[in-house]
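Is this the right way to post C-alpha cells for a design question? Let me know if I should format differently. Anyway, here goes:
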C-alpha cells in the first residue's frame, strides 16, 4: 500500500511527540528506581517488589481492535507495566523501559498508549488513533495474502514469447519432416513408380521388397529436383501454425486445474479421475485444433499428390481455396475429417489409460527406478497405439484426395468412395489397411509376384 503525503506527515508528527514523551518517562523511571534502590521510600519499595513478582513474562495478547491487523507472536514484546505483549507493527511506539533496563524498538508508523499515573498507583492505557496508512485492509494479514498480484507486462511478454517459440518449433519440425510425409502420402495412394527388388527375410527366404524412403526420395529428386521434396510445404506450415495457436488459445480459455500426482494403489479412483480429466481436456484441444487446421491439410495433400499425374491444378493456397469452394462447396474443405478425429480420440484414450494402468499396477513404488520407468511408459504406449490407429490416418488421407479431379484420386489408384466407411471396407478387402505404415522395409503385395525372382 502506498502512503500519501498527508499520512506520512501525521505519522511523523505522532512519532516525534511520542519520542519526547518517552524521554520524560525514562527520566522519571530512573528517579523512582534510585529511590527504591536506596530505600528512601519503603512503601514504594514494597509495592515495586509486589509488582515485579506479579508481572508475568509471557502473557496472552489482548484482543486487537476492529480494523487493526494482528501481528505474528514473534513480533510482540512484553510491556513494562502490565505484562501483556504489545504488537510490534501496530503499537511499536516508545515505551518506558522495564525494571531490567531494556529499551523499546524505534517507532515508525504507529504509537502506543500513554500511561497516566494518579497517586501511588494504577494507570490506564489510552491508545491514540493510528494514521490511515498504518491501518490494515479488510481481512488483516490474511486479506493481503489472498489478494492476487496483477500480471505485469513482463510476464505477459514472456508468455507471448513462449507461445511464439512453440509456433516456430512446430513450423521447423513440420518443414524438416515434410519429405518423409511426402513420400509416405505417395505410398498411401498406391503410387509405385519403381519396381520391387529381390531380398531375403530373417529366415533366409527370397522375398520382393518395394523401394524404401531413400530410394523413393532419390527418384523424386531426379524428377523434380531437390525443391520437389517440399511440394505442398506452404499450406502444411500454415496448417501447423493454426493448430499450435488454436491449442494454446483453447488451453488459455479452458485451463486445467493442477492436480497432484497420485500413484498409490489405494488411491486408484482418485488417480483414474485425474487421468480422465486430463485426457478429456487434451481431447477437446486436439479436436478443435484439428477442425481449424484441416482445410489447409486438405490443400497440402492435394498439392503433393499432383506428382502422380503431373498436374498443376492446385498451384497456390488462395487459388486452391477458391477452386475447392467452387467445385465442392464448404464441405470440400472437411473431407476426411471424421476418421482423423476418431483416430486422435482413440489414440489419446488408449495411450493415457494404458500408461495409467501400467504405472499403477505393473510398476512398484518401492522400485528405485520407478519414476524413470513411468516417464517412458506413455511414450512407449504412444508408439504401440499409433500402429493400431494407423488405418484411421490412412482412410482420412485417401478421402482428402479422392475424386477431386486428380489422377491419384481416381481409378486405377482408387474408386470414387461414397464415404469413409466405404473406403475402409475397400482397403480391408484388399488387405491394405496398413499401406504406408513402414517406409524402410516394404514387402511387395501379392500381385507383384509376377516379377522374376532369379
Amino acid at each position: 500500500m502506498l502512503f500519501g503525503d498527508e499520512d506520512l506527515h501525521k505519522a511523523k508528527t505522532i512519532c516525534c511527540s511520542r519520542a519526547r514523551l518517552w524521554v520524560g518517562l525514562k527520566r522519571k523511571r530512573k528517579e523512582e528506581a534510585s529511590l527504591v534502590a536506596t530505600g528512601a521510600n519503603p512503601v514504594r519499595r514494597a509495592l515495586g517488589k509486589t509488582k515485579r513478582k506479579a508481572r508475568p513474562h509471557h502473557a496472552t495478547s489482548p484482543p486487537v481492535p476492529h480494523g487493526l491487523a494482528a501481528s505474528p507472536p514473534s513480533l510482540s514484546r512484553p510491556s513494562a507495566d502490565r505484562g501483556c505483549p504489545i504488537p510490534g507493527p501496530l503499537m511499536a511506539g516508545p515505551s518506558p523501559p522495564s525494571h531490567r533496563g531494556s529499551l523499546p524498538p524505534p517507532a515508525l508508523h504507529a504509537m502506543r498508549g500513554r500511561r497516566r499515573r494518579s497517586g501511588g498507583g494504577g494507570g490506564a492505557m489510552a491508545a491514540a488513533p493510528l494514521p490511515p496508512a498504518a491501518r490494515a485492509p479488510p481481512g488483516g494479514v490474511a486479506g493481503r495474502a489472498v489478494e492476487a498480484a496483477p500480471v505485469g507486462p513482463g510476464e505477459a511478454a514472456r508468455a507471448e514469447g513462449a507461445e511464439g517459440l512453440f509456433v516456430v518449433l512446430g513450423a521447423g519440425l513440420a518443414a524438416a519432416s515434410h519429405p518423409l510425409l511426402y513420400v509416405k502420402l505417395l505410398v498411401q495412394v498406391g503410387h509405385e513408380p519403381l519396381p520391387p527388388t529381390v531380398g531375403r527375410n530373417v529366415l533366409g527366404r527370397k522375398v520382393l521388397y518395394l523401394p524404401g524412403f531413400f530410394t523413393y526420395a532419390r527418384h523424386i529428386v531426379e524428377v523434380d529436383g531437390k525443391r520437389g521434396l517440399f511440394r505442398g510445404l506452404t499450406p502444411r506450415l500454415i496448417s501447423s501454425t493454426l493448430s499450435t495457436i488454436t491449442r494454446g488459445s483453447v488451453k488459455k480459455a479452458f485451463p486445467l486445474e493442477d492436480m497432484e500426482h497420485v500413484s498409490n494403489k489405494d488411491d486408484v479412483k482418485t488417480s483414474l479421475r485425474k487421468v480422465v480429466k486430463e485426457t478429456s481436456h487434451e481431447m477437446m484441444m486436439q479436436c478443435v485444433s484439428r477442425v481449424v487446421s484441416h482445410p489447409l491439410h486438405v490443400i497440402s495433400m492435394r498439392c503433393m499428390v499432383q506428382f502422380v499425374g503431373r498436374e498443376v491444378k492446385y498451384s497456390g493456397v488462395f487459388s486452391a481455396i477458391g477452386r475447392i469452394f467452387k467445385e465442392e462447396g464448404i464441405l470440400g474443405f472437411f473431407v476426411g475429417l471424421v476418421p482423423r478425429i476418431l483416430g486422435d480420440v482413440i489414440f489419446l484414450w488408449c495411450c493415457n489409460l494404458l500408461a495409467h494402468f501400467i504405472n499403477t499396477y505393473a510398476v512398484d513404488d518401492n522400485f528405485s527406478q520407478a519414476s524413470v520407468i513411468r516417464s517412458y511408459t506413455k511414450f512407449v504406449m504412444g508408439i504401440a497405439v499409433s500402429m493400431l490407429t494407423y488405418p484411421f490416418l490412412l482412410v482420412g488421407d485417401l478421402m482428402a484426395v479422392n475424386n477431386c479431379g486428380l489422377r491419384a484420386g481416381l481409378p486405377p489408384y482408387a474408386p470414387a468412395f461414397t464415404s469413409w466407411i466405404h473406403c475402409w471396407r475397400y482397403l480391408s478387402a484388399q488387405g491394405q489397411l496398413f499401406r504406408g505404415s513402414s517406409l524402410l522395409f516394404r514387402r511387395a503385395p501379392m500381385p507383384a509376384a509376377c516379377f522374376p525372382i532369379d
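Format looks fine. Someone answered above. Worth noting: Residues 275 and 353 are 7 Å apart (CA to CA). The first helix runs from residue 5 to 38.
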